[in-house]
Structure formats: structure tokens, C-alpha cells
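Pinned message: reference record for 2-nitropropane dioxygenase
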Amino acid sequence: MQPKIRTRLTHLLGIQHPILCGGLMHLSDANYVAAVVNAGAMGFISALTFPDPKQLGDEIQKCRDLAGDKPFGVNLYISPRQDANDRLEKLLTVVRDEKVVVVETAGGNPGPIIPFMKEAGIKVIHKVPAVRFALSAERAGVDAVSLVGAECGGHPGYMMVGSMVQAADGPQKLSVPVILGGGIGHGSQLTAALAMGCEGVLMGTRMLVSSELQAHQNYKKRVIEGTGLDSIVVQKKLNNHHRVLDNQTAQAVLALENKGAENYEDYAHLLNGDLSKEAYASGNTDQGLLDYGQSACFANAIEPVRAIVTQFMQEAFDAKERLSELRTEYSE
Ligand SMILES: Cc1cc2nc3c(=O)[nH]c(=O)nc-3n(C[C@H](O)[C@H](O)[C@H](O)COP(=O)(O)O)c2cc1C
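Predicted structure (C-alpha cells):
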């Protein structure tokens, strides 16, 4: 039996391993999330993938059937645009009524919805790209924060702080547990993050090759071929830095940026999420902005989530062992 690493995060969520697998738009559904929690980590159903409240409720129930009594979470993206958050309130009500134990929030300030979640007994982990946002989230009452570095697939924030800096800086300044994300895909990084005071790690890109993920084999093969050097940050002009696979759509966005386009409307046809949704289904990875980060270098085979997590934890223990074998010498 594999030994366990206990941290404040494993206690908070009642999970075996200090690993979060973050919400994945169009991809983190009941099948995938149940596979993650059955492997001893924590997963999050992407609420915006099921924007109709009835659909989200059904997906949560399906996950409960597959995960038995294991807790699982929901990812809620908070838009900076208030009008886009009307839908959020309805989804939040489903999350409460379905008694989901933990929510991963991301995007805008979670402050306004925290009292609602606290009253419902829901734990909140807010995901941010810089310590200063984490401090605001802590003041607003979140239970933990995920700090993601510039290497991450998705939104690294306009400050583009690297994970190594986040890992050492965050735990010194925050009292709530800090989870490190961005470029994580090898277990030795968990050991390093723990050494720097973090309580766990968060993965997205590394998990894109999971067998249980509903995506075309050609898409997963593209991730396997990828090195992570083929990720690119776009939407800088919109101050919405977005790390994605370097494909035709990403290049078209860059070309518009270089021509001086600055408004969302100029890009809207390329940023349309339906393009990405279709790409995951068809395996045509030339189209859509496909969130994808530097940790693709660790994704070398299509495997069940359990195999990925088991190998990751073995790598973490191997790294711990290497550290314990290091000798400290004192000179006179
Ligand atoms: C394909 C994909 C889709 C994602 N979709 C979301 C999302 O809908 N909401 C969210 O909060 N984060 C999303 N993320 C970010 C992840 O949850 C996680 O924070 C990030 O992938 C961690 O960095 P890594 O990719 O270097 O592991 C997505 C990431 C990927 C790779």
C-alpha cells in the first residue's frame, strides 16, 4: 500500500493525496471528476460546461453515483462582467441544493458569493495568479487558495509570476493553505512545493491525457507529442493573458493583436468557446483557443487517472527520499 502525505489540504477536503485537478472547460465532467476522486485526489466539474442548471444538477448526481461517498467539487468561473454572472447565481443554487462540499472559484473576486457558500457549508478554494489577489480572497473568507504560476494552461494573469516564486512567497504571507499550480506534472514538484510551505498542488494540462477524459484520441495524441514549448500566451492586449496551444486560431489572434486590435469584439469570432468544444470532439487541434501549458512535457501516454496519480505520488516519495539522503556538513 502506498504511504500517504497528510497536509491541511488533505484534512480540509478529506482526500488521500494533496492533489487538486482543476476545472477544465468542456472537459471536466462527471466521468473524469469521479475518476479523479476515486484515485484519491480532488476534482471539479466545470459548471459552465453545463450552463443549464438542470444539466449541472444531473451531472452532479451522475458524479455522486460514480464516486460513491467520496467528496467532489464544482468549478465556478466568476466573470468580471456583472451581466455574465446572472447565470452564476442559478448554478450556485444547484451546487448548494446538491450539497457539493467544495467549490473552486476563479476569475473575478469571490467576495460577494462567499457568505452564500459559507452559510451552505461549502468549502471555497479560490484560484489566483498572484499573491496579492490571494490576500484579498483570504480576507473575504476562503478556506484555501490555489496560486498559479505563468507556466499554467489557461489564465496565468497579466503579471506572469512564475510558480517557483509563488510557491515560496505565498505560504509566507497567507494563513490559509496554499496550493501551487502552473507547470505541475511531476511528483518531485509536490515535494518541492511542500518544502516551500505549500499544502498541495493543482494540475490541469498534465491530466489532458487521462483515459477518462471525453476528448478525441487525436487531441490527446497532440498533447503527448507536445513539449509545452508549443504553448503560447495570447489576449495580452485585452489584459486577459491566456496560455494555449500554439495553433491556427492562436496565430490568428496574435496577428490581430499585432495589427493593433484592442477590443473584445475584434476577436470575438476567434475566442468563441464553440470552436474549442468542437476541437475536443473532432480532434482537429488547429482550431479554437485550447488551454494548454508547459507541463505538457510530462504527459507522455494516455493512461487512467489512477495510474497518473499513483506515478505522481511515487515520484513525490522518491524526491522526499533523495532529500532525506542529502547530508548536511558542518565545518569547524
Ligand atoms: C483544457 C483546460 C481547460 C481549463 N478550463 C478551466 C476552467 O474552465 N476554469 C478554471 O478555473 N480553470 C480552467 N483551467 C485551468 C486549470 O483548472 C488549472 O488551473 C491549470 O491548468 C493549472 O495549470 P497547468 O495547466 O500548468 O497544470 C483549464 C486548463 C486547461 C488545460
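Pinned by admin. Summary line: The radius of gyration is 19 Å.
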